[in-house]
Every structure is written in structure tokens, then in C-alpha cells.
Specification:
Radius of gyration: 21 Å
CATH architecture of the largest domain: 3-Layer(aba) Sandwich
Number of domains: 2
Number of strands: 12
Strand order of the largest sheet: 2-1-3-4-5-6
Number of helices: 15
Order of helices and strands: EHHEHHEHEHEHEEHEEHEHHEHEHHH
CATH class of the largest domain: Alpha Beta
Strand content: 15-25%
CATH topology of the largest domain: Rossmann fold
Structural class: alpha/beta
Helix content: 25-40%
Length: about 350
């Protein structure tokens, strides 16, 4: 059996691709599947995608991607399955998906881990936002043979357009990548957050809490991202995200935070930050939005914080009680290994390529 992965970004660059299917390539090899990966963006365009300006280079890259998608249609006869992550093309109508499913009768497995039918874009790429086909998502769902969604909220939405929906959680490779545990004796104490510039806005709720706790405790607040945040805190340490140092940088955390606003976009998120933290032995403090309440067990491997007072209370407890923090740290990885690891989800992932 041969699988064609039709994806937005080059291999190894984007978290959604890395943690939803790229880390299963070795499993597909072992099971005897053949596969090829066809990204929409080239490596060169990926490097400038989130930089301000560079309109002509971005436009040329998008046109090149559309041309590659058109030419790819003539090669689909050689594949048994077409796995599409998010969309074949970020702009325009879903011509690729329609032709592949309706005319060429290909088995499309449609995968997404965000509420991608809701407009959400960075300022750097706001010019292109009017070209994005957010309404395409429901059409692609109806064309698909199977739909792979990262949480229950996404599954419920997709089931309005297709009855063959599979809950396929975002997972962590606890053997080959997130395979280390936080050193319980590390100092200074670090509260940390990781994410892209497009989601750093969710930290706004937490900034007053951090500022107040700075007056009581000695700690550092690490932000790992592609761009430095604009808020000012004396405890702030910005760390530029790099794949090569990702694990080492995360292991400096004693507590990982994941604040979210309770809106439709946030409900579609798949708890990736919490999964990363907990896989490394780092307790997770999260907002009660979407899948977060399914991942974190309050008082055991983290806390669920509904408001500013609960964020303050939870962080204060862990800052002032080392024994409590150490006990939580010991409980985190077990949850990930049992429910959100590549090993625990391998059979479920392989079912995407079998008959319903």
C-alpha cells in the first residue's frame, strides 16, 4: 500500500505535522507501507513565511505551490491513500481535494488539529487572509473517506459533514524524542511557556499574576518562541525556539503553563503544550478549555486554572512547596505514556489506513 502525504510545510518544520503524523513514519516503514511527502511550501518560502513584508517572495511561493498541486493530480493513480493535513492549498477553492476524491475516487484521509474553519492568521500574513478558504474545510470533510481529528470538539464539528470521523490525538514520541525527565534538583525555579508568536497573546491573562508573584518569590519566567514577546517582566527570559535545543530548553522548566481564552478557536486546540511539558516530567497548569481537562488531572500532575486567582494560588503552592512539586513531577510522564504517546496510539493511527 502506498500513501501520499499532502501537507502544508516542509518535513520537520511545523509542530502540527511533526506530532500528528511525521513521527509515525517509522511505524509505517515497519508495517510495510510505502509513502511520499509533498509539501505545499518550499524550504525557502517556509523561512520567510512569518516574517513581515517580503510580499513578492511569498506570492511567488504560493503560486509555485498551487502549480505543484495541479501537477500532482496527474500522479495520484500510483497511490492507495491520500493523507491531507489541514488543506492541499492554503488559498482558493479545494480543487485538489475535489478532483482526487470525486473524479479520481481516491481514499482521502483528512487530518486537522485546530478549528481551521475559523479565521485566524498572523499580522505578517494578513494580506493573504482574504484569499484563504475557511469555508473549504466543511467541503473537504464531505469529500473525505475518513477524517482524523485531534480532540472531541473537532470530531463533533466534523461529524456534521462526514460520519467516518476518528479521534486521533496529538501524541508525543516518548522513546526517541521526549525521552528525558526533569532534574528535580535544578535551580533557579522556572515557570515556562512555549508557543508561536500567533499564540503569545494568551499569556496576557498571566502577566499580572507573574508580576505579583515576582514580589514574593525568586524565579525565572521563560518564553520559548519564534519572536520575543512585547511585555516587560523582571523575571522574563526569552529563548528563541530551535528544533535542535527544544528538549534541553523545555527541561529548564519546573512548571509549564498553558493559558487560553475560552473561544471557538481555543476549543479546537489539542493540548500540545501540556503534552510536551508532562512528557518531560514537568507539571502543567492549564486553562479549562478543550482537551486540557482530559489531559491534566488536578492535584496529581498539574492544575486546571479557571481565573486569575486560581493561577496565582496554583503557582504560589508550587513555588513554596518543593515536596508537592516533586510529587507532581513524578506523576506526569505516566499519563502521557499511557494515553498520549506514539506507542499507545500506534494501533489507532494504523486504523486510519484500514476499512471502517
Amino acid at each position: 500500500m502506498k500513501i501520499l502525504f499532502v501537507v502544508p510545510y516542509p518535513t520537520g518544520k511545523a509542530a502540527s505535522q511533526r506530532f500528528r503524523f511525521e513521527q509515525y513514519y517509522a511505524l509505517l516503514d515497519k508495517q510495510g507501507f510505502a509513502y511520499e511527502i509533498r509539501p505545499f511550501l518550499s524550504d525557502e518560502v517556509w523561512k520567510i513565511l512569518y516574517l513581515p513584508g517580503k510580499f513578492l517572495q511569498k506570492a511567488a511561493g504560493i503560486l509555485g505551490g498551487i502549480l505543484r498541486r495541479f501537477l500532482l493530480l496527474f500522479k495520484l493513480s500510483g497511490y492507495d491513500y491520500v493523507f491531507i493535513h489541514r488543506e492541499a492549498s492554503p488559498i482558493g477553492p479545494p480543487f485538489f481535494e475535489y478532483i482526487a476524491a470525486k473524479l479520481l475516487k481516491k481514499k482521502i484521509i483528512y487530518d486537522f488539529d485546530d478549528a481551521i474553519w475559523i479565521p485566524n492568521y498572523s499580522e505578517a500574513n494578513s494580506f493573504f487572509s482574504f484569499l484563504k478558504g475557511y469555508a473549504n474545510v466543511k467541503h473537504i470533510c464531505s469529500y473525505a473517506w475518513k477524517i482524523s481529528c485531534g480532540n472531541d470538539y473537532l470530531c463533533q464539528w466534523a461529524s456534521e459533514y462526514n460520519k467516518n470521523v476518528v479521534y486521533n490525538p496529538t501524541t508525543i514520541d516518548t522513546v526517541n524524542h521526549h525521552n528525558r525527565i526533569k532534574n528535580l534538583s535544578d535551580r533557579p525555579f522556572v515557570i515556562g511557556w512555549t508557543g508561536s508568536h500567533s499564540t503569545v497573546r494568551y499569556l496576557n491573562e498571566l502577566i499580572p499574576v507573574i508580576a505579583e508573584l515576582e514580589q514574593e518569590f525568586d524565579f525565572e519566567f521563560h518564553v520559548i518562541s519564534d519572536l520575543p514577546p512585547e511585555f516587560e517582566l523582571k523575571s522574563l527570559r526569552f529563548i528563541k525556539w530551535k528544533k535542535e535545543t527544544e528538549i534541553e530548553d523545555l527541561l529548564r522548566f519546573h512548571v509549564g503553563v498553558m493559558p487560553l481564552m475560552d473561544d471557538k478557536w481555543a476549543r479546537g486546540k489539542c493540548g500540545f503544550k501540556a503534552l510536551q511539558y508532562m512528557s518531560l516530567g514537568i507539571p502543567a497548569l492549564v486553562s479549562p478549555v478543550g482537551v486540557n481537562t482530559r489531559i491534566v488531572d488536578p492535584g496529581i500532575n498539574g492544575y486546571i486554572c479557571k481565573n486569575e486567582d486560581e493561577w496565582k494560588k496554583s503557582l504560589r503552592e508550587l513555588l513554596s512547596n518543593q515536596a508537592l512539586w516533586q510529587e507532581m513531577s513524578k506523576n506526569t510522564r505516566t499519563k502521557i505514556e499511557n494515553e498520549y504517546s506514539v506507542n499507545s496510539n500506534s494501533e489507532n493511527f494504523l486504523k486510519l489506513f484500514s476499512l471502517p
